[in-house]
Every structure is written in structure tokens, then in C-alpha cells.
Specification:
The chain is α+β, with helices and mostly antiparallel strands and 112 residues long. It contains four helices and three strands.
Length: 112
């Protein structure tokens, strides 16, 4: 922090600014570590069922891993497809049956 600025700030304001700088630094380093690590996992919260993407370096024994290891993009894709599928199924959606093969019959006009 600039020394001239610190003389003009109240002690509590100085403390708050230092605290915010520490928090910001930790957030930046956490995001960098998560994005720089090659492997990510998708975990499910056992209490809520919410899916989250975590860097492999942050996985602990009590995490329920449901997908991975993979890149961040692959894990986000898994989460997105899981959420979209779950939402569709909760609305009563079912996959459409495969279309039947078209019969090879000539047009009536061609035979007339």
C-alpha cells in the first residue's frame, strides 16, 4: 500500500484494504491453480446433489467423483449435459424413437 495513502486512512480502513488485497490474491491464485492444472473432476455434493468442477489437486477422499479426470471444458460439458437432461426428464421428456426406414414404394403418380 502507498505510504502516503496509509497515513491518511483510518486504521480500520487500512486493515480492510489489506484484508481485501489478501482475499483478492488468494482468489487469483486459486483460480490460476484450478485453470492451470490439466485434470479436473466433476463431484456431486452428497447433501444437495449439486455438481461442481474441481481441479485434481483439490479432490479429497470424501468427494463423490462422478466424472473425470478430464479437461475443464470436458467437465463443464458433462455438467451442462447432465443438468439439461435432468431438466428435460423432469418435464416428462423422453427420447424420441428412431424414425422408421422409409418404404421404397413408387409414387402413385409415377405408376398411373
Amino acid at each position: 500500500m502507498d505510504e502516503s495513502l496509509s497515513r491518511t486512512l483510518a486504521p480500520m480502513e487500512q486493515h480492510n484494504r489489506l484484508l481485501m488485497q489478501q482475499i483478492e490474491g488468494r482468489l487469483r491464485s486459486g483460480f490460476s491453480a484450478a485453470l492451470d492444472s490439466g485434470d479436473c473432476y466433476v463431484i456431486r455434493n452428497q447433501g444437495t446433489g449439486v455438481l461442481s468442477v474441481l481441479a485434481s489437486s483439490t479432490i479429497e477422499d470424501d468427494h463423490e467423483v462422478v466424472h473425470g479426470p478430464g479437461s475443464f471444458a470436458q467437465c463443464i460439458g458433462f455438467v451442462n449435459s447432465s443438468v439439461v437432461t435432468r431438466m428435460a426428464e423432469s418435464d416428462g421428456w423422453r427420447p424420441a424413437p428412431a424414425p422408421a426406414a422409409a418404404a421404397n414404394t413408387p409414387d402413385k403418380e409415377q405408376t398411373a
